[in-house]
Amino acid sequence: MNKFLCTSFVLLAIIAPAHAITVSTPTNGAQVTSPFKLVASTSTCSSKPAVSMGYSIDSGATTIVPTSFSASVSASQGAHILHVKCWGQGVNSVVNLNITVGSSTTTSMIVKSPTPSAKVSSPFSLSATAAVCSSESVTTMGYSLDTSSNTTTVKAQSLQAAVAAAAGAHTLHVKAWGNAGSVCVTNVAITVGSASSGTAATPGFSPGPGTFTSAQKVSLSDATAGTTIHYTTNGSAPTTSSAIYSGPISVAASAVIEAIAVAPGYTTSGLARADFVIKQSSSGPVVPSTATKSTGIHLLNNWIYNHDAGTIGTAVGTTSLVGTPSLSGNARQFDSSYTDNGGEIYSVVYASDTTSMNFVYDAWVWIEAGSSIANLEMDSNQVLANGQTIIYAFQCSGNAGVWEYSGAGAHWVHSSQPCNPANWETNFWHHVQISYSRDSAGYVTYQSVWLDGNEQAINATVPSTFALGWKVGVVQTQFQMDGLATSGSSTVYLDNLTISRW
Prior knowledge:
The protein is an all-beta fold.
């Protein structure tokens, strides 16, 4: 069952192969004052996922930091090598930058616009001033883009210009020359887009935030055309590296969803946040405080599976733990392929108990869209001290359109309560709770089943004792999927499986 440069001399750039490490500031050859700002990030290290970063000055000690960071770094005046590093599993990499630390009073260049990391449209406004360069009075200012040697200059201590640039990322070099020949440069990283229409609209939620008594499917939308929405569900601020919204988000337990929208020609939207509190209805199986709870049964590594010979046709299955979709961080995935309505049984022994007489099955079930399931079975079995096996078999039967339970002769008995797995919403977490008990004579009473907080009373007592020769004390649960029609496949996920007994 079933991420700046002021120099009085030219520094030679270190030529190195491309790295995954991005150092936004300082640039190679920069002259800075102490402390200076270091901004860097990476997602990979020597082609493997990065787990941490670090930095050091010359041969000094390394400071370990996250894979995206901004730090204030102190260093003595003079020339130094700044080492920016990363580590992955069994690998490491480093980017070395030449920097010169000078006195904070040697340069007075101020770039008013654009600001570092600004997103601008072309032409953009450049505004800068400089009175002193390396303690020399400034006579000329100028600017260039990227590696261009074509510098526009003006003999003044202030610079105002409309600068045209192609769309994309650029480095704006703002320059000043002192009266004795010194040169100071401030580098500003910018991104040029198409003529901006402003800021992308902030995403919206449907339903809106609130407290709910059942799981919700939350849709995200944005009023700006052509947006891509990035979101998180753990309360952390989303970035353009966060998950991309592609359809309704299943919220079966309390969660915080945060989202941003990005679109070509627009600056990134404001942050949208919605708190969803899921409080299941107070109705549900009553479990006494003295009950033994076997939690996380779906995480056990001793699950076995095979074709149910009691079904016609064939079935082949496999099972594994996955992180998505999941509620707890790990859900058990069941994959089955079948012909002619074949069923695949997945089972696990989770305890030894010959005395408990009351059971509550509590689990969350997700049926993947496209699955073809006739019957979805959730069982418990218990071997008593006398060797007799009590079968607590219960299924949502698409064949019969009702909940069914095991009866005399291992036959399925129809209840009067409707159920069909084909009618369950797919790609959504459903909460299933079943309460049943036995007496000393081997009769099993199926009391009620709750689907997503809605109780359906069964109230049926049937003989359900069998001499199967199983090991005394075994307490086992089975999860079975029967195929629908001549051939097909199905994928179902099980999470937070808890069975209470007393």
